[in-house]
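Dear colleagues,

I hope this message finds you well. In preparation for our joint manuscript, I am sending the Phage holin family protein (Falsiroseomonas bella) sequence together with its predicted structure, so that both groups work from identical material. I would be grateful if you could confirm receipt.
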Amino acid sequence: MRLLNLLRVAWDAEALYLRRSVRARAVQAELGLAAAAFAALLLLMLHLAAFAWLAESRGPVAAALLVALGDLVLAVVLGLLARRAGRDPVAEGALRVRDDALRQLGDGAARVAVMAPLLKAQTAKKGVLGAAMTAMLVGLLSRR
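The corresponding structure tokens are as follows:
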């Protein structure tokens, strides 16, 4: 019964981790897409105005370089905003719970696999007393 409970805990933790991770990635993608669209539209409109304004006083080459520098600054700022969404502590906790439950499940299954033949052999050879002693040994080992 404990093995089934561990499986259920692992399943629930995995489901929570996946839900939270997908939600976080979706928000991150939406922010990145919005930043890219905003940057494209903004730069399209501002390029012409900035170039025309700067070309009057500094010449066309200097105006083009200054507009490119502005593009670089905006790209860095928007890229940093898109990366800003960090790890979700709830999703990370769910992942740790899942890993712990699966580890315990593996430990319990291994213990049962090792002890089942012993229990059968002891029961067949020594009767009720041997079965009781083997069950006690299994109980002691499972508490460790």
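For the figure legend, we might mention the following. The chain has one domain: 2-109. The longest helix spans residues 2-58.

With kind regards,
E.M.
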